[in-house]
Amino acid sequence: MNSLVLYIDPGTGSMLFTIIIGAVSAGFFLLQKFKLKLKFLLSGGKSVSVATDRIPYVIFSDSKRYWNVFKPVCDEFEKRGIDAEYWTMSEDDPAFSESYSHVRASFIGEGNKAFSKLNIMNAGVVLATTPGLDVLQWKRSKNVGAYVHILHQPGDTTFYRMFGLDHYDAVLISGEYEEKQLRDIEKLRNIKPRETCLTGITYLDAMKARYESSSAADEKKDGTKTVLLAPTWGETAILSRFGERIISALADTGYNIIIRPHPQSFESEKDLMDSLQAKFPESDKLHWNRDNDNFEVLRRSDIMITDFSGVMFDYALIFDRPFIYADIEFDKSAYDAAWLDEDMWTLRILPHIGIPLKEEDFDKIKDVIDSATGDERLAAGRDRARAETWANPGEAAVRTVDYLVGKYKEICESGEKEI
Q1: Number of folded domains in the chain?
Q2: If we measure between CA atoms, which residue out of 290, 293, 220, 288 comes closest to residue 251?
Q3: Would you place residue 51 in the very low, low, confident or very high pLDDT band (cuts 50, 70, 90)?
């Protein structure tokens, strides 16, 4: 007799999980309310606050790759002697290597297990860089005072999938144009205005300090230029579209070439990576880089070739060097940017800080590299970009914790819910 196999497609499965989590959360809060009423009766009628077991500050990270954003904030909490919790979905998060006394790191599981805990958390202020709050699996907890979003790279607040920031209470920004984008979206969708605070960018501050304290002596071992090819991954990325052609063209320049594919390429595009590495093996002039930390390859290179990747801002703003970017058309239809008529700031600033690379330029890529490395117009563009998107350099962590502490104080002073 044939067995009956029940198949649930991913979309339906996600919807079912959302329904189940909603029911579980509702049951949890109902039980919590019952417990508070019971405590109220047993205490002889004295008021009982939901803040009894509240965690004042929770920092939530959905991936270890955002530790560079949160470490300066955790360091600042530790410096001030303020207790905070760091919840991560990465079991090997670098946070577990820190010796904090006041910041406690916890692995909360992955996927649905993590969201189940997040959806019933009891916290004063939650800081996160994860978009999509109250859109998919991650739901607002009734026992959280405020959700605060922190940006993980310079650029647009509209560079998120639609509705990514709609349900946050506050957004920490790094440029005044970002606030305008938020306000424009709020008007179009008729949503409650979110608080903003011009804090800056924590990880850029940390990277700048690291660069300034590093030795420049070993950056250049000879007079030959070093070119870093650092693409993203996927069908529209450089290696997928032009892999052999662009690597061959770069090898013909005679320059030192470092190829640093996106880590996801070695998983999702393994056949492509194997093929390219076999055709272009390691040599004195060509190196494949898979370091977890990209700092050293950025520091060692004179120019970078990339596509639509946030690393171009790290390179331009911190290391003050030019880059060449693949001239591809960005489809904004799935992003909040699609709601606005004005072009994204990222697209407006790109021509001022980088050189577009067209396919017809591959045969003369050496000339493109040489002209870009000495282009004073690009240097002026980098100064402009810093002024527009990197507010309060060196102060982001301090201003972030100042805001979180002030917000928690405001929540406490507004009065707790009582039975």
Answers
A1: 2
A2: 288
A3: low
